[in-house]
Known about the structure:
Blueprint: H1 3-22, H2 26-33, H3 35-60, H4 70-90, H5 118-134, H6 137-165, H7 167-175, H8 190-205, H9 214-217
Helix pairs in contact: 1-3, 1-6, 2-3, 4-5, 4-8, 5-6, 6-7
Amino acid sequence: MTPQAGLFLSALAFVGTHFLMSHPLRGPMVRAMGEKAFQGVYSLISLILFGLMIYFYRVIGREPPLWDAGQAGWVAGTILMWLGSVLFVGSFVKNPALPGAKGPRGGPHGVFTITRHPMMWGFASWAAVHLAVVAMPKAMVFDGAILVLALFGAAGQDSKKAAQMGEAWHEWTAQTAFIPFSRGVGNPGAVALIGGTLLFLIATWAHPMPAGIWRWIG
């Protein structure tokens, strides 16, 4: 099996098992092994498959890029990466969709005034930027898988939470946006802004290739 085939198959399995275990298989698996054991199995399978994706991605090595993002692409990507980091960090502050949360209480606050799926859009932003600036065939598979999982996963979460929470979730969706900023500009809050900016600076500084503001200031 070629590394390219390995990357494609592991990415397909990563996305497929996520959707299967999040939706049709979740109920039967939880009834069979309990919630905690299910979360452990879910996490283990996800980590193994994601690890395989990373392994094959690295084994493939450098490929001829399909296009050149150019300076404008890097500037836009830097801004989007920062925004994705802010959304991701803010998603941990009073997120009604996290495991163990009691559901939405009161109106939206923080990053939830921007989108009700800040974590998913954080992942989607990172994947889209990486895909656009790296522009290699392997990035189409690796980052494309994360992008599909994030966006379709957000839509699937809406359906699952509506079934679990009923009217409470319907009220939440009526007050919040699926697509960021589609209901106006919101204040993400100090925790998201500061924490997200720090995450962005550290992650781009540690990146194997010059990224973020470090691309220009060294």
